[in-house]
From TrEMBL:
Segments forming domain PurE: 266-413
HAMAP family linked: PurE_classII, SAICAR_synth
Subunit comment: Homooctamer.
InterPro entries: PurE_classII (IPR033626), PurE_dom (IPR000031), SAICAR_synt/ADE2_N (IPR028923), SAICAR_synthetase (IPR050089), SAICAR_synthetase_CS (IPR018236)
Entry's Gene Ontology BP terms: 'de novo' IMP biosynthetic process
Pfam families: AIRC (PF00731), SAICAR_synt (PF01259)
Protein name: PurE domain-containing protein
SMART domains named among the record's database cross-references: AIRC (SM01001)
Amino acid sequence: MATSSCLKLGQKLNEGKTKQIFELADEPGHVLVQSKDQITAGNAARKDQMEGKAAIANRTTSCVFKLLQEAGIKTAFVRQQSETAFVAAHCEMIPIEWVCRRVATGSFLKRNPGVKEGYRFSPLKMEMFFKDDANNDPQWSEEQLLETKLSLAGLTIGRCEVDIMNRSTVAIFEVLERAWATQNCTLVDMKIEFGVNVSTKEIVLADVIDNDSWRLWPAGDRSQQKDKQVYRDLKEVTPEAMQMVKRNFEWVSERVKRLLEPQASGRVVVLMGSISDLAHCEKIRKACSSYGIPCDLRVTSAHKGPDETLRIKAEYEGDGVPTVFVAVAGRSNGLGPVMSGNTVYPVINCPPITPNWGAQDIWSSLRMPSGLGCSTVLSPEAAAQFAAQIFGLSDHLVWSKLRASMLNTWVSLKQADKKLQACSL
């Protein structure tokens, strides 16, 4: 891996308690985020050196951002540059910490007497805090943020931008929550920050997400917590205590790598009644690839060669790989019903509708004999999405792509509405 020394550093743009930000002279619009071996608590009221923390934090952040980017979440992260630094898009940071909570604990209990620790928020509880060390990062309301009319990199933070950050925070938490669940670990709460990319003028997830950013309880047990709260709770900072904190941070940095690994492999098998349906089927395969799902295309007719159709079915049932069959047949659809009646695997009808006979042909996919459970989806892309939703129940990486796609669709609509309103005015 390339080291930070390979890069031509420009001026230092910022230095916080745990990191430094440098311009990159040879990469306009990008910065180097250099972590430090420092751990703090209570706005640096407690501050200690922890050898190796910079590398641990950088590994954690890099893995988390890779997971989110592969899902489709927009972030400032570009690449891990060295053991202790990563390259990111240059952003003007929005001075708000967005806090998302699944379980009530910590400062929330102090601010909300009567709520017991462990209370579960469904939907998630959202809070925001203005970054102001001198005043201990006061909690803000949406109204305060809107009335401040912050302007960063030429973008004024208004209702549209606040709503985008709010929705994005929920989606990011849910993606990471589902990922950590694969390790039997509860993501209790999390804080993140957003910035405005100075080149694109869009809001992206920025800063870092490391073991300072969340609470993690293995098996949902607070006594096993692995996050920075262990350091906050120390009655006395001793070398032995700091070694325990470091072991917890290392545990997280090792486990976080596993979040990038799929939990289950699956595939979609598209059965077309005729090679003339190939273009329709290719759209399904292309959409499947966007979710990271392998897709096989086969030609078989349940009317003209039912024995071969069932042989192909048995071929895919025999290797134990979770499979969703998609039946693509025009005119009289025999593929979907025959497959559904002879396999317990999910079957989706996706008939290629033609202008002349489509209204009549569709009934062979909609009206099934009793005991058959195949669904019918007309859009090739939607058929692939439906298959992805099935696999997403057991594969957090597929689920994350679906969740990010849902977020990005919402953001696009929100931005389109803002643009239209601006034109109307």
